[in-house]
Every structure is written in C-alpha cells, then in structure tokens.
Amino acid sequence: MCGIVGYIGTEQAKDILLNGLERLEYRGYDSAGIALMNATNVEVYKEKGRIAKLRGAVAEEAEGTTGIGHTRWATHGVPSQENAHPHQSTSGRFTLVHNGVIENDQELKEAYLLDVGMKSETDTEVIVQLIEQFASEGLSAETAFRKTLGLLQGSYAIGLLDKEAPERILVAKQKSPLLIGLSSHGNVVASDAMATLALTDQYVEMMDGEVVILTKGEVNISALDGTPVSRAPYTAELDATDIEKGTYPHFMLKEIDEQPLVMRRIIQHYQDDAGRLKVDEGVRQAVKLADRLYIVACGTSWHAGLVGKQFLENIAGVPTEVHIASEFSYNRPLLSERPLFVFISQSGETADCRSVLVDVKQLGHSTLTITNSPGSTLSREADHTLLLHAGPEIAVASTKAYTAQIALLSILAVDVAQGKGATLDFDPLKELAIVANAMEVLCDEKDDYEQMARDYLSDTRNAFFIGRAVDYYVVMEAALKLKEISYIQAEGFAAGELKHGTIALIEDGTPVFGLISQPHVAGHLRGNLQEVAARGAHTCTIVTHDLATTNDAHVLPEVHPHYSPLASVVPFQLLAYYAALHRGCDVDKPRNLAKSVTVE
Ligand code: F6R
Question: Mean pLDDT over all residues of the chain?
Fold first, then answer.
C-alpha cells in the first residue's frame, strides 16, 4: 500500500526519491508525488498514475537536497492529483506525506479546522493543517507536530517538511511501517528498506509512538512526550539483486522459478546438526503448551493456513482452526483454555492480522508470527517469529511466499510430532527435497502451461477450479491467483459442492480445472469432471503421476501426498501468469491491489 521515501543530505534529492518510489511500486498505488526543499522554497509535484508519469512531470531544473515522496493507494477520496501526497498547509509552510488511516479526521476538522478550506478529500490534509494551526498559535513546529500526533487516532507514518527549518525532516510512526536509513552523504526515511537499498544497508528501526528529527548528519529519536530514545542501527539483510528482475520479464515469473531454491533454503534453515527438521525452542514450547492453534491470516496466506491445518492435525495431532483475520473480531470462536495464535503474513504488516494480534495480546494469549519480513510489525509484536527466508517477494501476486508458508507449517508440524516422540512413516527432509526437484520439473514445463492458458483462458469470462480434500485448498489459491492478475472471474470449489448450486453456471465452453492429487478422492473428482463435461464444460485434469491414466495430458511429478500442495500449485501459478500475459494485463502490479495491505 502507500509508500514513503524521504532524503536529507548533500546530494540532489529528486532522483533518490523517484528511484525509491519506483522500488516501492510493488506495494500497489494509484498516484504519487514528491516535494523538494531548498533553502528558500518547497516545490511539490504530484500525478495520478505511474511513477514514470510523475518523473516526466518533475521539472528538469527542480532542485533540493531535502525531500519527501509518496505513493498513494486511495482510501479517503478517489485517486487524483488533488488527493495525491504530499499535502501542504494553507500557507504552504508545511508539506507532509502520510501512510495509514486517521480514524477521527472528521472530529478533528470540526474541533479545530472549521475555518480552513481543504484542498483535498483526504484524512491526511487534516494533519498538515492542524500542525499549521497550532504553529500559528505560537507553538514551535516540533511542539505543534507532537501536539497534532497526540490528537490522532488510527495509524500513521509521517514525513514533514517545514519551509522555515530546511535543515531537518520531522518523522513519526504509529502502527504503519517506517525506517530510518543512514548513508555517507545523508539520511533517509522509508516505508521499506528496499526503497533505499541503493544508498545504504544501515537502518534504524522506529517504534510506535516515536518521533524522529532527521538532519543530514543526525537521527534524534524520542518518545511522543520528548523523552530521548537511543537505538543502534542494524544491517538490512537484503541483497540488491533480490529486488532486480534480472533477465526475467516479470517478478512473478522470477519468483515462481525461485521456489525450488526457497524450499532448499528453508530445509537448511530449519535443520539441526543431526539433520532433523526443527524449529526454535521458544516456538516449540509455545506449541507444546497450547491446547489448540488458531491460525489467522488473509488471502493467499489464509489458503496456506488451510493447508497447514492438515499438517498440524494429521502429522502432529494438534487441533487447529483457521480464520480469516478481517472476520475474526466479529465471529470470534469460543477459545480453548490455552490457545496459541499463529499469524501467517508474507509482509508482516497486514492491518487485519495486526488488529487481531492486538486484541488477543490484550487477552493475554500467546502469539506466533510466520512471516517473510524480519522486523515487520507482526513479527515485532508477536511473542515468537518463524521466518520464511523466501527473499523479497515483489510481484503483488504471492507465489514463493505461499509455498514457503506451507513448507514452514509442515516443518512446524513435524517438529511437534517429533517432540511428542511420534514415529513418522515418512522422512520429511527427503520428501521436501523431492518437492524442490518436482517444482523444478514443473518450472521447466512453462510451455505446456502457456499453451494451457491459450487453450482454456484466452477469451473466457470465467473459470472454475475444483478439488477435494487438500486439493480444495489448492484450487482456492489457483482461483485467487487467476482472478487477481488476469481479471477473469475465477472460483475455487470443493468439487462435491458443485451440484449444490454452482453447476448452474456451467455453460458450453466454461473452463473447469480439476486437481487430483489425493488417492482417496480421485474417483469422486473424476466423476465431478464428467458431470460438468456432460453440461458443456471445457475440462482440464491436472493429476499426480500415481493417479494418472493414459488419457491425462497434465501429469504432476510424484511427491508425498502430505506435500502435494507444494507441487500442485505451481502449474496454477504459471497458468495465471500466462493468462494475464496473453490478456495484456500488468502482471506484477494488478489493478486496485496492494502488496502490503496496511488498512483494515
Ligand atoms: C494474493 C496475495 C494476497 C495476500 C494477502 C495477505 O496473491 O498476495 O491475498 O496473501 O493480502 O498478505 P500478507 O501475507 O502480507 O499478510
């Protein structure tokens, strides 16, 4: 979602900001802007649409060694130039960028800003106008800033320029991610280290409720009440090549191809000296103490959680429930006596998950985050973290993080089972290594899946994916992947449910993909495919090697049935990729979507 980049130093800020914003494009946005400050002036440039358009709009001669930039994903008010950030106070003294949502903006407007003419429909403008209001009443800019922050309800990451103090940027954070970066020629502020990796790998974390006064040589951190805070920098463990496409046309394709490597990396990270899969002792104890696990997640991560439940119950014998984060607060289940909440989130920033995390922590429950982002909000705030080690995932559609989540949940289940002294009838290490090889085979079969996309999806309005048992969860993910990047209306169904309603939608030529990887339901699934074929559907069977017949064209390499989702999802990821490509969609940045969903 929205992204912030700021710079103060000795170099010209323009390209640092624009390049940084480009690095944040993956988060999803619909407008962007920058403000450049020099000793006498602040110039603001904003555009609806892509950064490339903004770049074209910024004057060649625009100068300033201090600046702030922003990509906006609309919440309050439509995507437009007026609503794009940065926003300026009426006099033009203060210029501000903001991520997050201010929940009491209307109340604040009514209480303090009735006489102020607003230029935008955003909640953000209220912040900058309040700062000006308090400064005009005689407060210093810093005190006005702190007073304003004290009034805000909701979430924010803020960068503020003050024309009367060009030697500093004021920065604040509450619930929205923000980092300070240190470089040899100045300091930066960014929503994500990826934005400024070209300048530095040295970062200082910011905590909720903190304010930073950033100058070109110093980082002064304090609590909202002014109490100084000291914090050492850390080295961001990001490799600049991880965030480059290299020879790939799209990040999504690169990330699909990286999955075998990610599997092997996970096996390495979660193995003890004796070659047994294992998780951190704290996590092990937390699971041991729990009488029930509650997995909480959204979207693709929720789909991974559904597969994870199978592992945790079938391999480890731990009762597990899986919940959609955004529904959890209204439909809270009766909790067991000793629950462990497991948040699955690639970004570690998903607001829906965080809201549940805050609630359950207040109730005193134990929490674990499974994430790809060390240092993310969900990771910092949960009692325990397991990292995916998948490397940055840039494409909005999640692929390698999904399979990494499933792999890690399987390792957690194996670890718990081993801890209980259970004897497993399979060697998890060997089976995961077989999965990595199978993924490689599937990635080498891209031409087949490109052809499948042409044959089945080139001009269809909708598509159905059916499966039974764990395949049902995989086909839900297959449908989500297809709809989010190709805009084809796609649904994943439990195959047995078709005849209870959905089969009415089957017409001549409707594509129906059936996944068969589970021996005990293979026969039923084939029956369901015949039922829809008899009603005109254009059916496609994707089946594992052991269950294939001579008529099956799309056969998956054999993996252990426990691990089949890790392999069987790959063809669907490729299918979605090629369908989107053939339809001319922006594969990596699908419309309306954001990578990191930081609003509820
Ligand atoms: C779909 C996708 C989303 C995310 C969801 C949760 O490809 O990426 O459905 O899975 O927004 O995001 P995280 O995992 O960051 O909490």
Answer: 94
